[in-house]
Structure formats: C-alpha cells, structure tokens
Amino acid sequence: MYPEDSPVLDIVGGVWLLTARLAGELVGQAQELASAIVAPAKNVTWVLLENGDRWVRVVRSLVDGVLRAVIREVVASALRELDLTAIVRENLDIDLVAGDLDLNRLAATLDVETVVASIDLDAIVDRLDLDAIADRINLDRQVDRLDITALAHRVDLDSVAGGLDLNLLAGRIDLDPLVANVNVDAVISRVDLLTLARYVVDGIDLPAIIRQSTGTLSSEAVQGVRAQSRNADDAVAGFVSRLFRSGGEPKPGGSA
Amino acid sequence: MTAPVTGPAVTQAPAPAGIVSRGLAAVIDLFAVLLLSSVLYLGLALTSLILDPRAFSWPAFDLFFSLGAILLMSMLYLSFWWTVSGRTVGSAVMALRLVSHRGRLRWVQSIVRAFLCTIFPVGLLWVVVDRRRRSLQDIVLRTSVVYDTRH
What we know:
Helix content of chain A is 82%, strand content 0%. By secondary structure, chain A is mainly alpha-helical. Chain A has a domain at 188-249.
C-alpha cells in the first residue's frame, strides 16, 4: 500500500534497524551482566554445594532457634490474651467426650494390685481425724431410726435366761470385798435422820393420841372412881352418924 | 360451937376425905410399894448376876427380911411423896392431898407419920368414927387428908 521508496518506509526501516541494534546491544550488555553475576553465583553455589551439610545444619539450627523463640512468644502472648478454661467450658462437650471413652477397656488396663500396693494406708489413717468425724455423726437421728421394740422382740430372752446358771454366777460373786468398799458411815451421814424422824413424828399425831388416851382414862374411869368414892365417904359418914345417933352428920371441913 | 366461929373462910377450906377414898388410895400405894420392892429385888438379883454370873442364885426369900424391906420401902415412899408434894400415887389417883395445919408437911413430920402409918395401918379406920374424918395418925400429928379441889 506504500510506495517502495517512500520516506515513511525509510523512517520505519530506520527506526526498526535502530531498535534492532539497540536490542542487540542491550542483549549483549545483558549477557555480559548476567555472566558477571552468574559467575560468582556459580562460585557461591559450588561453595554451598561443597559444604552443604554443614551449612544445612547451621541454617536449620538457626531457623529452629528463631522459630522456637517466636513460637514461645506467640503462645505466651496468646495464652495471656485467651481464657482457656472458659473456652474449654463453653466449647467442649464433656458428655460427648465421656461417651466416647471406653471405661471398661481403660479399667482393664489398670493394674489394681500395683495401685493398691502403692497406697500408704497408715499415712492416710494417721491423717484422718476420727474424733471430728464422730462428732459430725448425728447419733440421735440414727437411734431414732432404730426400732428397739422390734429388736427386743427378736431376742429370745427365754432361751438366754435358760442358758444362764444363776446359782453358779451367785457362787462366783464375792460379796465381802463389795461390802467392804461400802462406806456405811458416809451413807448414814448423808441420811438426815433427824429430819426423817421429825417427818415420821409429824405424821404421827402423838400429842393427840396421848390426849385421847389419858383424857379417856381420867375423864371416864378415874373421875368416876373419885366421884363414887366421895359419895361412898359421905354414905359411910351418914351411916355412922345415924348409928351412933350423934345428932347430926359431921360436916366435912368443919371448924376445928 | 357458935355460928361466928364457922365463918365463910372456914367453910371454903378443903373437905376432909372419907374412909373409902383414903382406903382406895392406901391400896394403890400398897401396890406401888410392892411394885417398887419387886423392881428392887430384880435389880439386886441382876446386879449379883453381873458381878458373879457363875455363883448366881436368886436371893433367898426370907419372910422377916422381906417384910422388913417392904415396911422400910413403904416408909421411904410415903415420907418422900408427902414431903415433896403431899400426894402419893394413890392420893393423886383418888385426888387427895395430905396437909398439915401449917400447910405442907416437913421432913420430920412426914417421916414420923409414915412410920406410924406403916406399923399401925389400922389407925386409918378411926376416920369412920371421927367427926372430922381424922385417922389416929392425923390426930397425933395434927394433919388431915382432904379432897384436892384442883382435880
């Protein structure tokens, strides 16, 4: 579409030729640069390849140490930030975990004998405060729950009594030392005999009895005898005065 | 005896006791003396038993000695009570009292009267015929037995 010897073509060709030359120049420069770079890199690679194992170990230990420090710091900071207990409590389904556990299999793997042998029972017993435990036991409540009557009904007292040889028992009891231990004086001293006697005497109305008996005696018998005797005295005196015809009965208590 | 002599003051004096009251009192006193004598006899016997048990025997009953002992006991008994209160046990039971013309008897008077009454008890019978109901002992010693108006 363009004429063969047009100036445009010349310009385009010139630009292209220039570009091609520049490109070739650039490639040459690049090759030189690349060779300049690659050569030492090749050297470095060779060096690395020659001492590879050592370098690997060095690098690995270096990386390992760095990683450890980093991880430690990361975990520590994470733990500081996170509440693991709350997280586990909220997210862990204990029931599900427990359901998955095969306790029987676990138990089968336990060596109970070894466990028992390792327990120091004496030490445990020494640490137990049995008195405190006993204090905490409410015996009254336990006793209330006991049906003593039913218990007594279950005891066959007849057979128990039948089995006892009371004569033998009585024969084996030595009463003398028992009696010797009894402080009779102390017992007597503790008994308020005076008060007891007063109580008994108060109960017996002795003055009333005496009044009744003596009163009856004096009023009924003696006074009767006295009166009859006095009448008899007068009768005798009257008889005698009439007998002797003295002219009058002597006056008792008359003038001298 | 004229009326002025037997005034009111005289009639208020205790009446003398008759033969029946005094006789009963004498019988009671006799029993009291016999009881006392028996007690004394038993006391002597027990004393001899305590002092020498193996040689013990009841004291021999001697009539003369026993009668003398009872008479002595009677005299002591009567003189004691007459001096102390003018009343023996028999007099107390029969509500009688022995009085002197001066009041209560003295020791000598009581002893003499007890002696006379003991050796001659029949003297009491003079009460029957005496107008003032005196026994012979009363006449001798100027005493009299009266009804005790306090009983």
